[in-house]
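Q: Hi! New to this. If I give you a protein sequence and the SMILES for zinc ion, can you show me the bound structure?
A: Yes, paste them in.
Q: Okay, here:
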Amino acid sequence: MQLTQSHLDLLVCPVCRGALVLRAGAVDCLVCDRSYPVEDGLPILLAARALQPDSSKSVSGTS
Ligand SMILES: [Zn+2]
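A: Thanks. Here is the predicted structure of the protein with zinc ion bound:
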């Protein structure tokens, strides 16, 4: 099953309950900027798995 934005409209960020947006291979929270991985088509909405852009500089490049 393909994950689509319509699925994310039913879900919220587990940390701040903000809206989620689908990106390539990840799900981003629009409120707190955390990024959640997508594995096997399922978003892993766990705070422990979230990537925080402010604390991780491992992802570089412009979008
Ligand atoms: Zn959030």
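A: The beta strands are 20-23, 26-29, 35-39, 42-43. Let me know if you'd like me to explain how to read the tokens.
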